[in-house]
């Protein structure tokens, strides 16, 4: 018996769907091993997670709440990944967007909502975009590897946030907790249903916008060409350097908007460690969705459910919080490993 | 090989092909692109498994399941694109292949047994110890080189070698592994006429030692000169195997293409008044390694004229074409297009001014392999209407454009939504030409425009270029094929080490003197410039 890998000459369409689904199932199976090790029945744990994520209307709304930042960030990193710009600094850009929005909310929160909301949206985008711009400039003009620079800027942003909530922006009536005071009513995103806020509209608009940009616009065409073949991009007279800068601003800006929506729609204040690692999870989401904006909606929802479900088993089954991270990890591993099935077909021969 | 059939989805690459090689024979394998030569040889070297058919070696039936098994059976392939590690020495490159075969078992090398593979791979980690061990290999490689007339310095690093020398290393690598049957994939494509002669001597020596050679080529002259027998494939089927004495070039061409080929292209005189379109003055530029690749190049091209650039690859041709297209910075000198200085302008501005560029590396530079024909068709024109619609691209305009290209240039394409990397070389080049010649460019830079193409496609490309010349376009034609240059050009400039040796009117040009100049020999000719 011999295993043979042959490269697909013509990849059948179904492979594109079967591989991610298979990978997720495989990931859950692998995760089951860890659940077993933790001394719980995996089936029961997964059922509990399902219930926690979808079982009640409240659970469902929580899942949607967690889906919003994953979609927004995922779209942003996907645009960068299209151009082979490995922006893994979404976490930092997310923090920066939140900081920018908080700044506006704290200093101009007394203004009417109609004025202050667009300002905060802009601030979120610009602060996140700035955090994308720095590595972009370093790469475009200094040749610095963006994987390193974006990653390092994450810590700068997270620590900047800590400095602010422990220092100048600390709520004097916060009993010493590291958080700012609650934003004024007009500076918060209106709620739609339970905890679902209007950020969900932002996410939906973003899906359509990014889809149009990537698949239908001239700029998106430039991004696709550059990502596939940078030599051909230069040959076609595409300004690659300008596009590196613009794409990173957009990528960071999307994460920034997600950060803004998170503090204004959900926590209503900036606080220490308010992200459960959305910036990193969104990278998995983008990858799993093969950078396709529409597929990303579904995958983000799935991962939102995983986060909420993870919280649920943490509470009801007394499991450590890192279990969610482990299951995310096994799913990512399976997705990356599953790549081989989408590029090769496997043959057995005797 | 008997009755070999290999199917790929949607096509039969080999259909019941019989092929045999005798001991001490040079057997040429001839056929257009897509005729199935590569597939057949990939089966022999273990990259593919045949769907039907049998392979016999020395009368014994074998199944070659992997490249490693093929090597063990004494089959070696010299690839067209060298598989060498640039920063390693000749010896290291030759040994490296052996190490890959197996780490723990000994490897048969002819009659010798190399039992220290594992040891060697460990030693590779420690350069000081390695040096002690390597002298033995150096000697073996030098000896082998002398035996076959393949002189090469075993201590030299690959990047220091000329293309011809690198090819010798490839051949030595295969011989060192004990190959009795050598498959040579278009070995002369990168060589000067003189280097080709040397190679042919080597091949004769190898056959005298009992090696057999399968010689894959497009060039009828070479096949006639070197081979004992010729097998012609067409569209995956065997067209016939003939002994070289019993056939002439015309007959071979007919077998390959299935019809008579008109070798003489119709090149009408351009009667219109000639204007100077491109003027290049004392142009200097660096290559990627930061060495001066163009050392003061000057020439002009007039409307309705083809200026051929003859030279061995790596003498500044690529740099010249890139500088003219705006992809490489000129260190000094001037480029004037229709009298206007465009030296420092961007690629985009040059595209807008009507500079077309057909790069040597079609898939690597000129096209985006993973995008479809539509996306590739608009690579140069996506900024302009009708394809451009505000910030968006018009799908219907793209569709219309690509359909017109497919029709006008007879591009064979199964599905327009497939990535273009699945197209054959000829169809890729047609698509590229269709795009580049859209909008009647004033200057066309064509680099090796027919390299790797079959006769039919090459003829098509030449006709299209001549039509552009008739229209009044200026064409810079860079090629290594002197026959091509002599039939196409109005004038020929010979480039050697970044300098133009001479510019000849086509009436005064002959192969011998151009060949000598390509190799750096000054030939006393009057430099004739059309004023």
Keywords:
heterodimer; A: 350 residues; mainly alpha; two-stranded antiparallel sheet; globular; B: 531 residues; alpha/beta; Rossmann fold; six-stranded mixed β-sheet; 18 helices
Structure characterization notes:
The complex is a heterodimer of chains A (350) and B (531). Chain A is mainly alpha-helical and 350 residues long. Chain A folds into 2 domains: 70 residues, no CATH class; 242 residues, no CATH class. Chain A is 73% helix and 5% strand. Chain A is built from 13 helices and 4 strands. In chain A, the strands form 2 sheets. A two-stranded antiparallel sheet of chain A has the order 1-4. In chain A, strands 2-3 form a two-stranded antiparallel ribbon. In chain A, helix 4 crosses helix 10 and helix 5 packs antiparallel against helix 10. The longest helix of chain A is centred in the middle third of the chain and has 30 residues. The termini of chain A are close together. By secondary structure, chain B is α/β, with parallel strands linked by helices. Chain B has 4 domains: 156 residues, Rossmann fold (3-Layer(aba) Sandwich), CATH 3.40.50; 98 residues, no CATH class; 171 residues, Rossmann fold (3-Layer(aba) Sandwich), CATH 3.40.50; 74 residues, no CATH class. Chain B is built from 18 helices and 24 strands. A 6-stranded mixed beta sheet of chain B has the order 6-9-10-3-11-12, sandwiched between helices. Chain B has a 6-stranded mixed beta sheet with strand order 18-21-22-15-23-24, sandwiched between helices. In chain B, a hairpin with a 2-residue loop joins strand 23 and strand 24. In chain B, helix 3 runs parallel beside helix 6. Classes of the chains: A mainly alpha (350), B alpha/beta (531).
Superfamily at the CATH H level of the largest domain in chain B? P-loop containing nucleotide triphosphate hydrolases
CATH T-level fold name of the largest domain in chain B = Rossmann fold
Structural class of chain B: alpha/beta
Largest beta sheet of chain A, briefly? 2 strands, antiparallel
For the biggest sheet of chain B, the summary is: 6 strands, mixed
Poorly predicted parts of chain B: 99-117, 525-531
Distance, first to last CA of chain B: 60 Å
Distance between the termini of chain A: 4 Å
- Topology order of chain A in helix (H) and strand (E) letters: EHHHHHHEEHHHHHHHE
Shape of chain B: globular
Share of helix of chain A, binned = over 70%
Q: Overall 3D geometry of chain A?
A: globular
């Amino acid at each position: 018996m011999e295993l043979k890998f042959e490269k697909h000459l013509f990849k059948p369409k179904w492979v594109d769907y079967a591989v991610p689904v298979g990978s997720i199932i495989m990931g859950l199976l692998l995760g089951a091993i860890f659940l077993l090790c933790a001394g719980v029945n995996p089936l029961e744990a997964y059922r509990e997670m399902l219930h926690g994520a979808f079982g009640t209307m409240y659970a469902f709304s929580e899942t949607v709440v967690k889906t919003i930042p994953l979609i927004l960030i995922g779209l942003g990193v996907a645009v960068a990944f299209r151009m082979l710009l490995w922006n893994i600094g979404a976490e930092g850009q997310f923090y920066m967007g939140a900081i920018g929005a908080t700044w506006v909310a704290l200093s101009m929160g007394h203004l009417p909502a109609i004025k202050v909301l667009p300002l905060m949206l802009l601030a979120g985008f610009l602060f996140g975009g700035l955090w994308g711009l720095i590595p972009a400039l370093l790469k475009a003009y200094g040749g610095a590897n963006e994987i390193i620079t974006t990653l390092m800027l994450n810590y700068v942003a997270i620590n900047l946030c800590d400095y602010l909530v422990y220092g100048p922006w600390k709520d004097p009536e916060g009993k010493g907790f590291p958080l700012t005071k609650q934003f004024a009513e007009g500076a918060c995103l209106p709620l739609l249903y339970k905890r679902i806020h209007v950020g969900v509209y932002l996410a939906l608009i973003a899906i359509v916008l990014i889809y149009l940009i990537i698949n239908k616009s001239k700029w998106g065409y430039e991004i696709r060409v550059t990502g596939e073949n940078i030599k051909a991009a230069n040959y076609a007279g595409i300004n690659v350097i300008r596009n590196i800068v613009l794409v990173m601003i957009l990528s960071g800006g999307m994460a920034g908007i997600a950060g803004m929506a998170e503090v204004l729609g959900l926590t209503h204040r900036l606080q220490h460690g308010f992200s459960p690692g959305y910036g990193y999870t969104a990278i998995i989401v983008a990858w799993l969705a093969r950078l396709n904006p529409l597929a990303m909606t579904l995958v983000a929802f799935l991962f939102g459910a995983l986060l909420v479900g993870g919280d649920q088993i943490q509470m009801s089954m007394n499991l450590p919080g890192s279990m969610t991270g482990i299951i995310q990890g096994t799913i990512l591993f399976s997705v990356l490993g599953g790549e081989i099935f989408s590029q090769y077909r496997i043959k057995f021969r005797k | 090989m008997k009755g070999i059939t290999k199917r790929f989805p949607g096509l039969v690459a080999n259909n019941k092909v019989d092929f045999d090689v005798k001991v001490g024979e040079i057997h040429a394998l001839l056929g257009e692109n897509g005729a199935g030569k590569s597939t057949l040889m990939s089966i022999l070297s273990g990259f593919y498994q045949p769907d039907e058919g049998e392979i016999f070696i020395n009368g014994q039936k074998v199944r070659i399941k992997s490249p490693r098994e093929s090597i063990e059976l004494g089959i070696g392939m010299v690839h067209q694109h060298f598989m060498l590690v640039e920063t390693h020495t000749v010896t290291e490159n030759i040994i490296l292949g052996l190490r890959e075969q197996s780490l723990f078992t000994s490897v048969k090398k002819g009659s010798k047994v190399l039992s220290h593979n594992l040891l060697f791979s460990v030693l590779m980690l420690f350069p000081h110890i390695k040096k002690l061990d390597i002298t033995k290999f150096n000697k073996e490689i030098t000896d082998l080189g002398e035996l076959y007339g393949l002189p090469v310095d075993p201590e030299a690093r690959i990047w220091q070698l000329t293309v011809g020398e690198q090819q010798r290393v490839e051949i030595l690598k295969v011989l060192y592994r004990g190959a009795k049957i050598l498959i040579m994939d278009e070995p002369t494509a990168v060589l000067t006429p003189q280097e080709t002669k040397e190679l042919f001597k080597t091949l004769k020596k190898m056959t005298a030692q009992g090696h057999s050679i399968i010689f894959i080529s497009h060039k009828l002259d070479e096949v006639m000169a070197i081979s004992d027998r010729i097998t012609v494939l067409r569209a995956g089927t065997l067209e016939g195997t003939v002994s070289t004495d019993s056939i002439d070039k015309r007959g071979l061409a007919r077998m390959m293409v299935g019809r008579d080929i008109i070798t003489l292209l119709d090149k009408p005189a351009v009667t219109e008044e000639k204007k100077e379109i491109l003027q290049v003055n004392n142009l200097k530029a660096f290559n990627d390694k930061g060495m001066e690749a163009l050392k003061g190049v000057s020439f002009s091209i007039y409307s309705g004229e083809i200026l051929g650039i003859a030279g061995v690859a790596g003498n500044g041709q690529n740099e010249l074409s890139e500088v003219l297209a705006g992809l490489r910075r000129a260190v000094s000198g001037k480029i004037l297009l229709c009298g206007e200085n465009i030296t420092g302008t961007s690629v985009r501005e040059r595209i807008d001014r009507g500079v077309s560029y057909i790069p040597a590396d079609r898939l690597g530079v000129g096209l985006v392999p993973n995008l479809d024909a539509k996306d590739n068709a608009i690579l140069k024109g996506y900024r302009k209407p009708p394809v451009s619609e505000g910030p968006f691209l018009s799908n219907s305009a793209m569709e219309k454009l690509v359909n017109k290209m497919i029709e006008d240039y007879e591009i064979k394409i199964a599905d327009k939504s497939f990535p273009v990397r699945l197209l054959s070389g000829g169809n890729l080049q047609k698509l590229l030409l269709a795009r580049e010649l859209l909008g009647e460019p004033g200057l066309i830079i064509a680099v090796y425009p027919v390299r790797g193409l079959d006769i039919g496609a090459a003829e098509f490309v030449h006709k299209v270029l001549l039509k552009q010349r008739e229209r009044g376009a200026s064409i810079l034609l860079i090629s290594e094929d002197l026959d091509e240059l002599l039939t196409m050009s109005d004038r020929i400039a010979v480039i050697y080490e970044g300098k133009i040796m001479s510019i000849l009117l086509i009436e005064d040009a002959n192969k011998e003197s151009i060949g000598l100049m390509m190799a750096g020999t000054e030939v006393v000719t009057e430099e004739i410039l059309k004023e």
